[in-house]
Every structure is written in C-alpha cells, then in structure tokens.
Amino acid sequence: MAEEIGGVRVVEREGRGRALVACRPLIGGEIVLKESSILLYSAFPLTTTTASPYCAHCFRSLSSSSQEQQSQQQQRQSSYSCPSCSQEVFCSLECYSVASKKSHTPWACQTLLRLRHSLSPHDPLDLHLQARFLVASYNLSLHSPDLFHSLLSLHGSSSDLSSAAHLLHPLLSPPPSSFSVDVSVALLAKDKLNAFGLMEPFSVDQGSNRSVRAYGIYPNASLFNHDCLPNACRFDYVDTVDTDITVRMIHDVPAGREICLSYFPVNLSYRMRQRRLLEDYGFACDCDRCKVEANWSDRDRDPEEEEEEEEEEGNVIMEEEEEKEGEEEVMEEDMAEAEEAERGDNSETEFPHAYFFVRYMCNRNNCGGTLAPLPPSLPSQSQLLRSPSSSSSDVVMECNVCGNLQTQLL
Ligand SMILES: C[S@@+](CC[C@H](N)C(=O)[O-])C[C@H]1O[C@@H](n2cnc3c(N)ncnc32)[C@H](O)[C@@H]1O
Q1: Model pTM?
Q2: Cα separations (Å) of 164 from 50, 84, 186, 270?
C-alpha cells in the first residue's frame, strides 16, 4: 500500500500488526478505500448438481444481470459455458474472453477439471473452496506475479491448514512452477484471514442467512483491523457495478484514530465474537465494547444458543455481512436496553455503546447490516431522498447489507 491513501496511512501497532489510521479528520460517508481484488473465486462447490447462478467472471446473477427486460430463460440461453470444461458459466462471451486470459486460463481450466474428478460432493465445502482458492492463486502467479507477491505479503499463518494443503497440492496438475506444499499452506492461511465474502443479493426471507457467491482478496482492505464497534464499513455493488469494494466512514473521526471494520455482523453476542476472533483470527478482542460486555452476566443466555454455539463450526471468513445459520445474535433485550440508554433512561449506563446500535444498525427486518452516510460527493442522491419537510441537517444513510437508504436527523 502507498504510504498514504484516501486519508489513511499504514502504521505498526503493538499487538495488532499493521493498522490503518486517519492522517486527517475524516467525516462520515467519506470513502477511505476503493479497490479491485487481487483475485476472486466462486463460493460454489466444485462438484455439485446445481450450477452456480453467478457468472464465473463478474459474479453477477446470471438471471438478473444487465438487461432486466429479458426473461430468466433468455438470460440463461445467452450465458456462455467454457467450451473446454463446460463447467464454468459466464454471463457473456465478453466475460468468458476476459476470464480465459486471467482467472480461467487453460491451466486453471484443466486443473479445476482434475480437481472435479478427485473431489466428491461429500467432501466438506471448505475443501472445495480451498481447492478453488489454490487454483486461483497459482494461476495468478502465472499471469500476474506482482499480484501473487501482494497476496503472499498479507498477514496469515496457521498450523491447521496443513492437511488440506497436503491433500490438494498434488492435485494441482502440477503447480505452475516449483512451489512447495509449504507455499500452499501459507496461501491457505492468507485466504483464511483476508478473504471478503461477496454475498448473494439480499432478500428478506433469507436475511442474515444469505450465502456467499464469491470470495475476494483485496490488497489494502486486508490491512483494516477489527473492532466490535467499527468506525468504517465496506460496501460492494456486484450486481450493479463490479466486484470492487469500497470502505466508507460510518461517522466522523479525528486525525490519528485507527480505522477499523467489523469482521462479522455487529449484532453477535460477546461470547460469539470472542470465540470467532480467537479461533479464526488468533486474537482476544479488548475493544471498548468487549471491555463493557465482559462484565455482563450470562443470566439471560438462552440454552438453545449455548447448544448452537457448541455445534457451530467451519470456515469463517472476514466478512461483515457473512452470517451462518444458527449463530446467535445480540438478544432483543439488549437492543431494548440500547434504545433505553439512547433515550437517556438507563441510569446504570450498562450499555454506553447503545448509540451505535440505534444509529448505525439497519432496522430492516432480518437484515443486521451497518449504516453509513452516503459519500459527501453524492449530494444529488441525498437531495432526492429528502422529503419537503426534511432539513439540511438530515443525512442519508445506506445499509451495507440490504442497500436500504434512510434519512436521519444529524
Ligand atoms: C486482516 S488482518 C488485518 C491486518 C493485520 N494487522 C496486518 O498486519 O496485516 C487480520 C489480523 O490482524 C490482527 N488484528 C486485527 N484486529 C485486531 C485487534 N482488534 N486486536 C489485535 N489484533 C488484531 C490479527 O492478527 C488478525 O488475524
């Protein structure tokens, strides 16, 4: 990363590694980062009876991309399968042409085919995804060695990825150069700590259980550390724009403040957050919110939640909106407590971060997203949303999960 970009710079922080801090006061809605991925890979198993409904290059929905006037059937007919493997489907010949020179080169195509013969639908989904990631990474080393080195420079080391790497490495038909299995182990660790999930489109029915359509590794976005009450959040617009991600300030911060994302939805309970951060990211969070919640009693815990926590397992990837079925969310009474504290009736001030939940959590049913003001450079959109009665001190907030826009009084 450049020394300074979009108002943030990289510093080393003891116990946290690299961190991004504001080099000047930043205002809510300001874009601090917009960038393209180093690599992307599909979140669909390699061997499955149902084909991915997303283009294997741009990851837009095959049935609802660009021309909305076309019927779903027409859209599928106009999609384009790779003529070599016929397994990867693209929304257009243009997407296939680009992919055939980058992500779906003949080497990647042949290697994915070989992996499809070696893995079974009964193998864990994680193994399928690790296979896809390794193919994407080694393929990157062939056509973009600089980006491959960026990938290797990301944070990540892990001891529990060795068996997956040993299983997959020999299947990589053969790796494009003399990479050892240790490189595969190292790469899988980068993926585990740095991949962002690009989610399928939001629907109220699925809510926070919607799944990931693709994973992406982004060179600078990977430098944001975590905070359970983040001051920035990330947006993507896969179906309407592209697979770039944007990080926007949720609220104003002074110069020198570290800019953090939440690595998962902010409405997870203290225990779940601590557990995920320790198991998946290797640190115990001591942010302001955790310090407060560490003192909360477990009196209100639902026994079913305890069971769900015990059963919960799997590959958890840095993803603000990613949420797997069965994970506990902050309890309703906590939200009530938040609202009470926001109104100022809570004399015990047990929940000093209540303001965050009231102001910056989307209140749409089943969403759980985070709200950030529209970028200051988009006044026209803000104007459109304002009713005749709204004042110039209103701010338009956008949800990073469902995309809802709502006006709030400053
Ligand atoms: C995606 S990387 C973030 C950038 C990383 N600090 C670096 O040096 O590249 C995630 C890793 O950063 C560290 N980290 C992130 N947030 C942290 C926090 N709140 N406290 C301590 N370490 C944190 C952990 O080691 C975590 O596995």
Answers
A1: 0.85
A2: 25, 27, 12, 31
